């Protein structure tokens, strides 16, 4: 009997708990509020004032190491005084993936309070909703960012994107908007709150939930019109219009004036932006009749609504929605109508929302689904992996996930490169990898991947696959080697993997491969350098002659890459593993006879340039390829050594952004090098030479040239595990092919960076005046950072369109570096930007490039970024510029050419200036991987 009772008791208790649970659930579900107090100590707490239930954000970011206490300086802060700081060496974007209902409207509000003492250098970072960037958070200026949007999916990402500073967040609130009419007309837009004013509200008080069921926060005006006076509050007033969007508590108060009411907002974004203005009116005086209170509504001195009468429709409540384009300020003025109105204007509440069009589509949905699946497959064995930990939000936008590289094709982004090398990953290779249909390059090297290689689909676009240095087993599948586009396959140093390539490989012999031979690359590499370095020109011939057969291969290979012109890095290093391989694979240049060259150049008919090495002639090979032939001049003192140097280096170095060597000639004391002819000449010529007079380079092209050259140099700096230093980076050495792709030329001066134990390293300083690294000059110590300095000068040329040295200018403008520096430090970049670029660039993209340039020309090499960092920054700038251009294009296609120019102006918003006193450390810090704080 007792047992039975116990049993019933238990069921009762269970039922009670269950019911309680359901009650809580439905209470929460009914509202659908999500309120995250970042880093809060207790999991769930209720704000006593609003009864809003808050939770911590550990469900999104379990890591507590980024939690910081908000300093006491933040007054009247309700909630837990903590903020989450996102600062790791990896990752640029952190997203709260929030569950939403598709096509439902939401209000989202992020609060960014950090407190003065811990404020990370007046951090500047971006806030985006999915891929639409809506705001930049600058220290405590914009402590709150609120927007209204329509969910396009069953989840929405609220993302913080690293800018000059590391992002942080203290609160995040999501509120579903039921029956809201905000996004009725413009479905593809995000509305950012500029102002929401309870016009007659008391200073220091605000109205939100539960008075406003949507938890909008209504605040009294910040600078109320001093001549206006509050309308006597009328508690008894009732609204006889049922369709009211504003809480009664807000409408019950108002300001009025006998003649005119004015509300000025002057802190708006500059540039022509669109705003929606919502005005809410309730007649508080019951004795006023229709026609007795009539006024005109002006926005920025333009009459938008004449003779407005609240009572005109038979109700005592009326609202007005106006769209307006404004630049910097928005003034609302209500003026008593001239034709005999008895009472002056009244205003109860208004809102100003900035309209952000959805600028770009996100990543192609198929790619998103696959990469998310791939992430989940990888997570199974790599729970706490640092790289995967940063993968959140849209894979490509606004910045791509660590290790991904994306391209835009017909309006949407696709993933083209997956580089997970050296990411400490284990487990099997995720099969999803084969479903990334746009993937061209995969690098999984230097991980702990085990198991077999998955089967690839024949439709794959893969060009380069690197699986080296893992623990893979089995053999290379036929499906991989028979991929139609595959040009490079590396799988060395997988002890359990069979070196046997499938027979189909032989049919497809234009694949470069390391044959799976695991040899330590470093020493064998330098050994070869010594061999080649000491070999005379003649003895090289033997090695090279064998390589001629690979010329054909090379042409195929090159044609494949050039035709598409993808701006991505090709890991197409010709792997060298043994001396045999070296003979067969490393040299793909051709040995031309003197006669052949003379025919090709029509006996040196067309001189196209002169350099330290000698003269350069234009020619055409029998197969129609146009070439540039460098002929060593008899008087050249640097000849032989540079010739060998360049031959040695160039024959191994292959990169899309480096001018490849096609062949050479070494006959009758004549030394010549043959390169493909670059039909668009040099960057120098394009910037301020003859070509510039015909047509100036636009900014997006300049940016892509800068990025291309940076990628080429990055490749050199990390070539074969050692660093090759160019030593003569300058705009005349950056050539442009037919598609304006930048290729770095002239390796005549290049050198391997000195390594420990090297003796007899030549210390003579080389370079070109105007580009020379002052530290290298004074210490004679050569490092890759000398190239970085010169590259910085090239960036300044690209930005300003000026020569590095010009003694025909006033004395203080002789040196480009010395002239530009003070302007950059004072944030006056307009002074240095090439006048012909005016209005044609995205300010944020320009700023990124200017900052990179400034960091590069740091007098102390230690403060300069590496080329890898530079590429990363420029890629960001490129994406920003690209998005802006896409946006302009889309606007342009809507018609209306004047709109186009409006948008350009909108883009040239001067961003908040960097600290002028100490720009250098901050700038270099911005580029260097952030240090954990
Ligand atoms: C908070 O939770 C309580 C139940 O614990 C519920 O009654 C209340 O409606 C919730 N508040 C909100 C704003 O959802
Ligand atoms: C904090 O609250 C006090 C009194 O409630 C008020 O006087 C003060 O202006 C508030 N400070 C801020 C920054 O809102
Ligand atoms: C708005 O008013 C302010 C202050 O009176 C004024 O400086 C500004 O020029 C006005 N803006 C416009 C667009 O009329
Ligand atoms: C609503 O109130 C106004 C002013 O109090 C009055 O003039 C009007 O007749 C009322 N309308 C209705 C439908 O009750
Ligand atoms: C406001 O919207 C209307 C149509 O809804 C349009 O005709 C008008 O040009 C817009 N005005 C501005 C200033 O954008
Ligand atoms: C966000 O979460 C949903 C599940 O709620 C998941 O399906 C989706 O893939 C996530 N999105 C991203 C980009 O991680």
UniProtKB/TrEMBL annotation:
Its main location: membrane. CDD domains: STKc_IRAK (cd14066). Residues 602-879 form the Protein kinase domain. SUPFAM superfamilies: L domain-like, Protein kinase-like (PK-like). It catalyses: L-threonyl-[protein] + ATP = O-phospho-L-threonyl-[protein] + ADP + H(+); L-seryl-[protein] + ATP = O-phospho-L-seryl-[protein] + ADP + H(+). One of its GO terms (molecular function) is ATP binding. Residues 909-933 are annotated as: Disordered. Residues 1-29 form the signal peptide. It is found in: Membrane. It is a single-pass membrane protein. The chain crosses the membrane at residues 529-554. It is an enzyme of class 2 (transferase). GO terms for cellular component: membrane. InterPro entries: Kinase-like_dom_sf, Leu-rich_rpt, LRR_dom_sf, Malectin-like_Carb-bd_dom, Prot_kinase_dom, Protein_kinase_ATP_BS, Ser-Thr/Tyr_kinase_cat_dom, Ser/Thr_kinase_AS. It comes from the Eukaryota. One of its GO terms (biological process) is nodulation. Its EC number is 2.7.11.1. ATP binds at residue 630. Keywords: ATP-binding, Glycoprotein, Kinase, Leucine-rich repeat, Membrane, Nodulation, Nucleotide-binding, Repeat, Serine/threonine-protein kinase, Signal, Transferase, Transmembrane, Transmembrane helix. The keyword Cell membrane does not apply. PANTHER family: OS07G0107800 PROTEIN-RELATED (PTHR45631), PROTEIN KINASE DOMAIN-CONTAINING PROTEIN (PTHR45631:SF27). This is Nodulation receptor kinase. It comes from Liquidambar formosana.
